[in-house]
Amino acid sequence: MAVTPLINSPAVQIGRFESEAAYGQQVKGQQVKGQQADGQQVKGQQVKIHEKPEPHVKREELTASRTELKARANQGIVEAMFGGAKQGSDKAMNILYSEIMDKINAELGSEHAVTAEKMAISADDHWSPENTAGRIVEGALGFFETFKKQNAKMPEAEQVEKFLSIITKSIDKGYGEAVKVLDGLKVFDGSIKDNAEATRGIIEDKLAAFREAKLGKASEQG
């Protein structure tokens, strides 16, 4: 009678299959747990990377530094422009003249205005209060004949008063803008302020003389 080897018996085979299945499940479980652990670890690292706080302090410090450097640079430009007494005064008077004439031109038109392109800079005192005021008044009064034609039905005395009212408002507005610019640059003091105020006073005197001349002539003709 042949004896069936024990190792090939159904019971042994079944037990072996069960053992292999259990081992496989154990290995698979370990792999799954390992993958889960690795996944959690990687995910945790990703979360930490994303949750890393931004360096707000450093960014604010950088912004402050840039602002400070810009302010210093601007101050350096201002000092270079207005550092010298004569040079600074000339630039300030140029700003004053430009602002006033811009307002006059905007009100009445630039066809008859005395602009920078029409001026020949020759004298050393080109930007003195007297000369600057003279060019402003000359430029302003250059509009009067056009204004008269536009208001031909208006009596001459009324033409003069109306015209001077428009011109004076434009000059005041331009002067105010110039002062605002110079004051913002922190240079509206000393000789610059004195020259600006002197220029305005001379302008007022010249316009008053124009008014007296025109109204006196109109009275004589009447």
Give keywords.
222 residues; 7 helices; 0% strand
Task: Note down, in words, how this protein is organized.
The protein has 222 residues and is mainly α. It has helices at 10-50, 56-82, 85-108, 129-141, 144-150, 156-184, 190-221. Helix 3 (85-108) crosses helix 6 and helix 6 (156-184) runs antiparallel to helix 7 (190-221). The longest helix has 41 residues, at 10-50. The radius of gyration is 45 Å and the shape is elongated. It starts with 9 loop residues before the first helix and ends with a helix.
Layout: helices, strands, pairs:
Layout: H1 10-50, H2 56-82, H3 85-108, H4 129-141, H5 144-150, H6 156-184, H7 190-221
Number of strands: 0
Number of helices: 7
General shape: elongated
Largest sheet: none
In short:
The protein has 222 residues and is mainly alpha-helical.
